[in-house]
Amino acid sequence: GDSVTQMEGPxxxxxxxxxxxxxxxxxxxxxxxxxxxxxxxxxxQLLLKATKADDKGSNKGFEATYRKETTSFHLEKGSxxxxxxxxxxxxxxxxxxxxxYQLTFGKGTKLSVIP
Amino acid sequence: xxxxxxxxxxxxxxxxxxxxLECTVEGTSNPNLYWYRQAAGRGLQLLFYSxxxxxxxxxxxxxxxxxxxxxxxxxxxSKKLLxxxxxxxxxxxxxxxxxxxxxxxxxxxxxxx
Lengths: 115, 113
Hints:
The complex is a heterodimer of chains A (about 120) and B (about 110). With about 120 residues, chain A is mainly beta. Chain A has strands spanning about 5, 10-15, 20, 25, 30-40, 45-50, 55-60, 60-65, 75, 85-95, 105, 110-115. Chain A is about 0% helix and about 50% strand. In chain A, strands 2, 5, 6, 10, 11 and 12 form a 6-stranded mixed sheet that branches. In chain A, strands 3-9-8-7 form a 4-stranded antiparallel sheet, with no helix packed on it. A two-stranded antiparallel ribbon of chain A has the order 1-4. In chain B, strands 2, 4, 5, 6, 9, 10 and 11 form a 7-stranded mixed sheet that branches. A 4-stranded antiparallel sheet of chain B has the order 1-3-8-7, with no helix packed on it. Chain B starts with a strand and ends with a strand.
């Protein structure tokens, strides 16, 4: 079945450092890919998405590019802030078929940004 | 714009008691609706989803049930809670059809004593 693997955390960075959180996936066909962010005690917020190969999703300074050849969707940000401290989830959903109602999530990566 | 409301935010219940969590969506029609559970330190598990009124699909066998009495209302229930039902419950909605991004509520923290 489909699966998502993302780098284990926690990740601790200083403010203004560069962030990369790796995410790779296994799926048939061409799933849509997402990054969600969860702040402490809150639900998940959709951060960015990409629906086809070579698409780049971007939001709030975060970017991720859908790489079909490497089955990857790595999250990057050039300069992190303390307010970016949260848990980040990579996820996929098939574009069609019986499984296209179920998001498959990675286990999450906890990011802590220190001043 | 669309909004999703989920309540209560926090709930403490004794083992064996019933449960009812409610979720409503505003600003859209005929959404797909979902219930997830997030156990401490673990990822998210899809429990139920619904593509229309009265239509419920269960992903994991358990002592929970779901109902969709109205287009934008989704309810998670149990007749008798177990200790293992503790967790963070999240409701989500998406546009109709498959392959859509899902948008989450703020969650309910359920503790079973």
